[in-house]
Amino acid sequence: MTFNSLLRRIHTHHTDSPADKMNTPQRRPTWSRKFSGDDLSKKCVCYIRSTHNVSVEPRDVIENQKQEPIATERIERNPWKTEQRIVIRRTSLKSNATSATAAEHPDEDEDDSCPASNDVLYHCTIPFDHMTWDRMTGNVRQIRIYEQPLSYAISGIFIHQMSCGLSSKNKRSDADHQPLRILLTNGRFPVSLDIARQFKNAGHKVYCVDPLGYPICKFSRASVASAQVPAPHDDSRAYVRAVKEMIRIWKIDLIIPIHEEIFYLADSDEPDILARLFAPPFHLLLRLHHKFEFSKLTQDIGLDVPEAHLCTSMDDVLQIPMDRYPDGIALKPVFGRASTGVHHLHPGQPIPKNIPISPSNPQIAQEWLVGDRYCSYSIVRGGQVEATGCYPVLDTIDGSSSVFFQQKFHPPVYEYIQRFVSALPPFSGQIAFDFIETADGIFPIECNPRATSGLHLWSQTPYLARAITGTLPKEEIERPIRPPRKMLGRESHFQVAAGMLMWEHKNASFKVWLSHMRRLVFTRDVIWKWTDPMPTIAQPFLLTNYYHACRKQGMQLPKLFQQQLIWEPIGEDLDRVNQILMGDKVVDGEEELEEVLGVLDEPQAEEQEMVQVEDIEGSTLGRPSI
C-alpha cells in the first residue's frame, strides 16, 4: 500500500462535513520560534490527514505534496522538557499573505520563515514518548499520535523516514533502490545473523551457505533460504563450486564474506564469484592477513606499529634480544586468529620446546604491549572509508574474543584507519583492526580484512547495510558514518548473551565481576529479537549439539566453530602464497604485485579525491560495482 493510498483510506473514514469546513475558523498559532528556512537538511518531512480546525482537504495536501513537500520545524530533544510543540505547514512561503499577516503581528520579524495563516495545517503539542528518534542524527524520525476525543478527527501525523538527516529534496529511502540478493558465506556466527537482519532492514534479500546443516541463520526470518555446502577447509574446490551453483540458483548480486572462507573465494578463478565478492584482491588480502607482512606494510606507510620479527625456527626465536622488551613478546602464527596459538614469552624465562614453529608454520614474535585495548570495524568502498565503529575490549570468552560491544568514538583510532586506508590502492571490502593504546600512542596488533564482531555496533539499524551496498547519501553526510551512541534514549550497546555466560573470569575482582553482571542483565542481546524469536529458541538445542561435538573431537567451542572455515596454506599453496607476497608472481595476468600495491614510500596526497559510488538504479546487473 502506497502512502498516498493510505491517506485516501484515512480520508474516507474521517472526513469533515462541508458545514464544519465552512464554520471552522482559521487559527494562527503562537510561534515559539521561527523556521530557520536556510537549513532544510535538518528538517523532517511530514504528512498530515486533516484536523478539526483546518479546511484543507487531505486530497489537496496530496496534490500539493507532489509539487512541494510539507515541512516542519526541526524538533530538538530537550532533556528538561517532556513534550514539544510543533507546527506543520506547507513549504511554499512565497505568499502575498505573509506581509499582510506580519502587519497584523508587528512583534514578529518580517521573514519568509513565518508562513501565512492559510498555509498552516496543524499545530499541537507532542509528548516525547510518541516520537521515534533517528539513531544517526538524533532528529525525529516518526511521530505517532492517537488523541482523544475523536471529534478532533486526528488520524495521525506521519513523518517520512529520514536518511541520515538529509533534506526532503535529496533524501532517499531504501525503497528507492533495487533490492539486492545477498549471499552470506556462512550462517553460523552471531555476526552472520546480525548482518542478515541489517540487510533485511535495508530492504534486501539474504541467503546463506554453510557446512553446518543447521546454522543459526537457518531459523531466522532474515534469511530467505540457506544451503549446506562442503567445508572449505576440507575441500576448497567443492566449496567454490557449491557457492557458484548457489549464485546461479538464487541469482545472487553481492557476496558478503563472514570468516576466512573469504580467502578461498578470492583465490578462485571464477568470474561469477570475483565480480560479486565484497573483498579486496587476493594479493592485498594476503598482506593484510599475514601478521608479519601487515607489520611491514604499516611501517612502510609510516605509521606506528609494535616491533616484530619473523621466525621460522627456534633458532630465530633464541636470537631475539629479549632485554629490549621488558613486558616480553607474543609468539603466534602469522596466519592465526584471535588468541589461538599465542605464547607470551617473558625475559629470563625458558622458552617452551613444544611450540610448532617451522618454515611451513612461520610465527611472528611481536612486542608485547600493555595498555587499553580497542577493536575497530570499517567498510571501505573505492578506497574511501564509508563507516567505522570502535569499541573497547571489556568482556571476552578466551581473552580476545569480545562478547560485549559499546561504541566509543576514539579519534586516534579513526585517524589511524583513515591514514592506513588512504595509503593503500583503492579497494572495496571490510577491514578490522585490533589496537592497544599506551602512553606512547596507539599501535595496531593485527588486521582482519573480513567481517568481525564490530558490526554488532550497527545492530537494529540499516546504515551499515547502506554503506556496504553503496546506498548511503552521496551528499550532506560526513564520512565515515559512526554507529549510534544512543538508541531511543538508551546507551547503544549489545552483547552476545551466550558468550557473556561463558565469560573468562579468571582472577577477576569482585568489582569487575559486578560490572560484568550489570552488563549481562541490562544489555540487549544481538540474538534475541521480538519479531524474530526462533534463533533464540533454537539456540539451546544448537549449543547442546555443539558441546557434544566439542567433547567428541576434543576441541573448545570457538575452535570448533572455526575449524571448517579456517584458511591455513600448506605445501604448494604456501609456496605460492610466499611468491605472491614477495612480488615475484603476476597476479591474474595483471600488473606485478609491487606495481599493484604502489610505491608506499612516496608521500601521500593531503587531500584524496572523493570516489563516486555508482548508484544501483540503472545498473544492468542490479547490483553495485565492487
TrEMBL record:
PROSITE patterns listed in its UniProt record: ATP_GRASP
Annotated keywords: ATP-binding, Nucleotide-binding
Domain ATP-grasp intervals: 295-482
MF annotations from Gene Ontology: ATP binding; metal ion binding
SUPFAM superfamilies for this protein: Glutathione synthetase ATP-binding domain-like
This protein's record includes keyword DNA damage: no
Positions of region (Disordered): 1-36, 95-114
UniProt xrefs under InterPro entries: ATP-grasp (IPR011761)
Record-given protein name: ATP-grasp domain-containing protein
Annotated source species: Pseudocercospora eumusae
